[in-house]
Amino acid sequence: MAAEKATYSHGHHASVVKHHAKRTVENSAAFLLPHIKKNSRILDIGSGPGSITIGFARLAPEGHVTGGDIVPEVLKEAEVLAKEQNIRNISFQQIDANALPFEDASFDITFCHQVLQHVGDPVGVLKEMRRVTKPGGLVAAREADYRAFVWYPEPKELDRWGEVYQGIGKANGAEPNAGRYLRKWAAEAGFTPSAVTFTWAPWNFQHEEAKQWGITWADRVRYSSFATSAKKHGMAGDADLESMAKAWLEWSEDPQAFIVVPNGEIVCEV
After folding, report:
1. Model confidence over 66-79: pLDDT tens digits?
2. pLDDT tens digits for 107-166?
3. pLDDT at residue number 6
4. From residue 153, how far is each of 1, 13, 100, 159, 207 by CA, in Å?
5. 228: which residues sit within 8 A by CB, 6+ positions away?
6. Residue 192 and residue 223 in contact, taking contact as beta carbons nearer than 8 Å
7. Are the C-beta atoms of residues 165 and 217 closer than 8 Å to each other?
8. Run of H or E including 194
9. Is 14-269 a CATH 3.40.50.150 domain?
10. Could you give the CA distance from residue 13 to residue 116 in angstroms, rounded to a whole number?
11. d(CA 160, CA 166)
12. Is 195:268 a contact under the CB 8 Å cutoff?
């Protein structure tokens, strides 16, 4: 298969990686908890800073968990975190999800979180995930749906942020509303309807979590690949981006602020 051509819209600015490091099995992969055994062999694609990957390793102490990401710098952070927590049944390596460097039927569970929305060929990636999963094993994915976000308060600058995010995702060759397409993509990857379980689960950020979301997105709008891509594709200039950043900061200070991030989830039997 061809190498990844889509551009990762978020990039790996410190504000992005810090936010991703707050993800855990419990808040981002709870739908997989009933399926993980003590001796499971698990592949976590797009493992980023490794927080979910390490959670899997704790749940499978007699198995092994492999975390893979396309960016070597973030893998180094994950390795440091695993070492600090004395997690030994884990390894990290650089991968391209379009051509996984593993033999057929290598894993009991192959998982990705917020990855398919950033790739150019999500069906091809699901096919690769299926290839490296053992017969009787599981392919699982969890993806947000940006067009279905709900937030309050609703300043016009945040509506503008949503429009720009959608435009960036599409211009970068990906699908920012991946959550709603998971069943369709699974079918196109060769899974029968009876083999696929689809669920819908939101993140519901309020209070301190909402505040941190707003602060993080203010930084990302100013400094991450979001800003670079917005300007590259002519979707927003510096003044527009600054107005979005200020709106996120003001939003974060409102005690009534909340944001709901819907996530589609699939578990597919191989």
Report:
1. 999 999 999 999 99
2. 999 999 999 999 999 999 999 999 999 999 999 999 999 999 999 999 999 999 999 999
3. 52
4. 44, 27, 43, 11, 13
5. 11
6. no
7. no
8. none
9. yes
10. 20
11. 10
12. yes
Position 43: which residue type? L
From CA 207, how far away is CA 251, in angstroms rounded?
Answer: 11
Token duo for residue 208: 């301190």
How many angstroms separate the CA atoms of 97 and 129, rounded?
8
Strand partners, 142: 113, 265
Task: List, in order, residues 6 or more apart from 167 with CB less than 8 Å away.
Answer: 230, 233, 235
Residue-wise DSSP of 35-66: G--TT-EEEEET-TTSHHHHHHHHH-TTSEEE
Give the 3-state secondary structure percentages of the chain, helix then strand then coil, rounded to 5: 45, 25, 30
Domain boundaries, the chain: 14-269
Q: What pLDDT, on the 0 to 100 scale, is given for residue 9?
A: 47
Q: What is the distance between the alpha carbons of residues 270 and 268, in angstroms, rounded to a whole number?
A: 6
Task: Check: pTM over 0.70? Answer yes or no.
Answer: yes
Distance CA 245, CA 214 (A): 9
The pLDDT value recorded for residue 244 is 98
